[in-house]
Write a structure and sequence with these properties.
Elements lengths: L2 H10 L5 E5 L4 H15 L8 E8 L6 H15 L3 E5 L8 H16 L4 E4 L4 H13 L4 H4 L5 E4 L2 E4 L7 H10 L16 H16 L3 H30 L5 E3 L8 H14 L7 H12 L8 E4 L2 E6 L2 E5 L9 E3 L4 E3 L6 E6 L3 E6 L2 E6 L5 E4 L5 E2 L8 E2 H7 L4 H4 L4 E4 L2 E5 L3 E2 L5
Parallel strand pairs: 1-2, 1-4, 2-3, 4-6
Antiparallel strand pairs: 5-6, 7-10, 8-9, 9-10, 11-16, 12-13, 13-14, 14-15, 16-19, 17-18, 19-20, 20-21
Helix pairs in contact: 1-2, 2-7, 5-8, 5-9, 9-10
């Protein structure tokens, strides 16, 4: 079966009719763009097929600007709309990992409802992904490598070329007289994927002609075994994970270490996180899950932080320290730091009403300056019939995790705390 008819068959098996193609300008994605352009012309078989493309400018190559122009020319030729997105690549971890995360996060901003992201991964890429997972010591989840259809970073992804080799893509490109760019970094064997692609896998393919197909079968076996494990653990997992970014730890200590790690991997996969190494997972269990009861431990995993409070794990992003912030409320709307949104004040005849997210609080009017802060320690009277109590105890009664307490806007009249928006207001002593 040729490339075009195979992809057409795949699309007929999906309900999707809108596709966003990840276009680097290299051989693989250029072939993919050409195939979708041809499919769009095949009326009336796919009459409502909508195709767009997106190119991510990572800024890592001196040739990056010329790649943008190449992709624009290519899309103009095929009459396919092109989105160009520039990103900053974090170098906290490897450049490869940073570029990948920046790329997918940028794409996610543009992916429309009901639209499917299409990538040009092929059979050779599958082999590389399998070996990289093997190098990391991955379990079944990682060795399952890539699937033709999956979800990544919360986005539906289709990989229609996964059953074809790079040689087959080259044959198609030459037949169609396509031009493509070559990323000079592909020759840099300091990168693990390039080392495998350029040095190791060619020798294996030379000795064993069908090596890539054998790896694909092994990856599929791993994927199916992981699916079976997930099916067997689904009932237990549902008890621990009722909210996507939270994992309840009740009865968790009674499980075997194998079951504990399997359930945590299911939770991380549910939240679209890359699987940690065995060492990282052991560290997470020892230092966070089974930390002392009064501890407030945390564990950073790529761009997320796993925290524990009481008998629950929480998955959050890293937070800035806001305890030193003091913001003056001089207009009706105040922009809060660290992606906390806006705080809005509305005035009526007798009161000021403050709105933040889904919360609100009504306070008396004042002639004092109004400010917003995010940290407070000491005793306050938060109920008319109760004495002053330490604010830490009040947060505990409200079951607010410690890291959230310094992210809730506190309204001050002058230097006097009046309210934590949405959680409590402060009453006078009288």
């Amino acid at each position: 079966m040729d490339l075009l008819s195979d992809i057409e068959k795949q699309l007929k098996q999906t309900t999707a009719q809108a596709f966003l193609i990840a276009l680097s300008g290299g051989l693989d994605s250029t072939v993919l763009l050409s195939l979708f352009a041809k499919l769009r012309q095949k009326q009336p078989h796919l009459p409502t097929l909508s195709v767009r493309a997106i190119h991510i400018h990572h800024g890592l190559s001196p040739n990056a600007d010329s790649w943008v122009q190449h992709c624009q020319d290519l899309c103009d030729q095929f009459q396919i709309p092109l989105i160009i997105e520039r990103v900053q690549v974090s170098k906290t971890n490897s450049i490869e990992a940073g570029a990948r995360e920046a790329r997918y996060q940028a794409i996610k901003k543009h992916l429309q409802t009901q639209e499917v992201l299409v990538t040009a991964h092929h059979l050779n890429d599958q082999t590389e992904t399998f070996f990289l997972a093997l190098k990391r010591g991955s379990g079944l989840q990682g060795l399952g490598a890539m699937q033709q259809r999956s979800v990544l970073f919360g986005m539906p992804i289709l990989r229609p070329l996964l059953g074809f080799t790079r040689t087959q893509l080259e044959d198609y490109a030459q037949k169609e007289k396509l031009n493509w760019i070559t990323d000079e970094s592909n020759e840099d064997n300091r990168y693990d994927r390039n080392f495998l692609r350029n040095e190791i896998l060619p020798k294996l393919r030379e000795r064993w002609t069908h090596f890539d197909l054998a790896v694909q079968r092994s990856a599929q076996h791993c994927f199916e075994q992981q699916q079976l494990i997930n099916d067997l653990l689904n009932e237990a997992f549902a008890e621990h994970c009722k909210i996507k970014n939270q994992f309840k730890l009740l009865q968790f200590h009674q499980y075997s270490p194998t079951k504990q790690t399997a359930l945590l991997r299911m939770w991380l996969a549910e939240n679209q996180l890359e699987m940690p190494s065995k060492r990282q997972l052991t560290q997470l269990i020892n230092d966070v899950v089974f930390a002392k009861e009064d501890a407030i431990p945390q564990f950073q995993l790529v761009s997320k932080v796993i925290r524990r409070y009481q008998d629950c794990l929480y998955l959050t992003k890293p937070f800035s320290d806001l305890t030193k912030y003091t913001l003056k409320l001089e207009k009706t709307t105040l922009s809060l730091p660290d992606d906390l949104g806006n705080l809005t004040a509305q005035e009526n005849e007798h009161n000021l009403i403050f709105y933040w997210q889904d919360y609100s609080v009504t306070l008396d009017k004042t002639n004092l300056p109004i400010s917003i802060r995010f940290g407070y320690s000491g005793k306050i009277k938060h109920h008319p019939k109760r004495p002053r109590e330490d604010i830490k105890k009040i947060w505990q009664e409200l079951s607010v995790p410690p890291w959230e307490r310094n992210r809730i806007p506190l309204i001050f009249y002058g230097n006097e705390l009046k309210s934590a928006v949405g959680f409590f207001r402060v009453f006078d002593e009288s």
